Automatic annotation (TrEMBL):
Transmembrane segments: none
MF (Gene Ontology): ATP binding; GMP kinase activity
Organism per entry: Jatropha curcas (Barbados nut)
Enzyme Commission designation: 2.7.4.8
Annotated Pfam families: Guanylate_kin
InterPro entries: GK/Ca_channel_bsu, Guanylate_kin-like_dom, Guanylate_kinase, Guanylate_kinase_CS, P-loop_NTPase
Listed name of the protein: guanylate kinase
High-level lineage: Eukaryota, Viridiplantae, Streptophyta, Embryophyta, Tracheophyta
UniProt cross-references to PROSITE patterns, sorted A to Z: GUANYLATE_KINASE_1 (PS00856), GUANYLATE_KINASE_2 (PS50052)
SMART domains associated with the record: GuKc
Any one of the GO CC terms: cytosol
């Protein structure tokens, strides 16, 4: 004969009992009540490093990402470079003098910094701590040299996304169209970009920002963030 052990209490017939009665009866039968705790704890705040060659569209992707995604804090980089037309101090960058920048370095206020094309750029630590503490995901925008340094500092605690154009030609066209470079600085940026695109292996993901397809690139970055937040083993921000 089959199992002869009796349930602790009778479970009413499905069609006769209300949902509440059924739940109570099953709980009684199991000897414990059903938990209302979330089955998965809230994911850790994610540190997202977005990098890529000059002119690939890092700013454009991040701007759009901030429009479509909540709970995201973009860390405003401090720089000693001149403001470009349309840029806003404190929104696009913190524009500071070289002297001010160097005193931030001395006070150990920057996670990393570098001299890029003759100008200093660095990531203020305070914003990361403050916003990650509030549960925000943090976006860092760095050039490839900066991404390399950050990988050394942060290891696998952050997700590293490498943005590329579909071809070298498209990247150069985009830089020319932006009209922010002199012929000389254009050549330096192109030469650097040629060398830099060979470093994709330092990154976790590569995203193509193709001409006229900014929205697709942003969607892919969003999917990466979603997938990262669904991971069983979460990255733990080290800061
Ligand atoms: N998918 C795209 N299609 C067409 N144009 C784009 C696309 N993405 C960005 N752009 C344009 O390309 C130019 C360069 O983009 P952006 O300034 O965002 O690059 P960046 O990577 O932030 O450059 P840098 O590192 O030099 O600051 C801008 O004029 C931007 O509007």
């Amino acid at each position: 004969m089959g199992n002869t052990s009796k349930p602790k209490s009778a479970i009413p017939q499905l069609e006769k009992a209300s949902k509440t009665e059924l739940l109570r009866a099953v709980e009684t039968s199991l000897g414990s009540s059903f938990s209302t705790d979330p089955i998965r704890p809230p994911p850790n705040p994610l540190l997202i490093v977005i990098s890529g060659p000059s002119g690939v569209g890092k700013d454009a992707v991040i701007k759009k990402l901030r429009e479509v995604r909540e709970n995201l804090h973009f860390v405003v980089t401090a720089t000693s470079r001149q403001m470009r037309p349309g840029e806003v101090d404190g929104k696009d960058y913190y524009f500071v003098s070289k002297e001010e920048f160097l005193s931030m370095v001395e006070r150990d206020e920057l996670l990393e910094y570098a001299l890029v094309y003759g100008d200093y750029k660095g990531i203020p630590k305070k914003q990361i701590k403050e916003f990650a503490g509030k549960g925000y995901d943090i976006v860092l925008r760095v050039d490839i040299q900066g991404a390399r340094t950050l990988r050394r500092i942060l290891g696998n605690s952050a997700v590293f996304i490498f943005l590329v154009a579909e071809t070298e030609l498209e990247l150069v066209k985009r830089l020319i169209d932006r009209k922010t470079e002199t012929a000389e600085s254009l050549l330096v940026r192109i030469a650097t970009a040629r060398e830099e695109v060979t470093h994709a292996e330092n990154f976790d993901y590569i995203v193509v920002n193709a001409e006229g397809k900014l929205d697709s690139a942003v969607k892919l970055v969003e999917s990466i963030i979603d997938a990262e937040k669904a991971k069983v083993r979460q990255r733990k921000p080290v800061l």
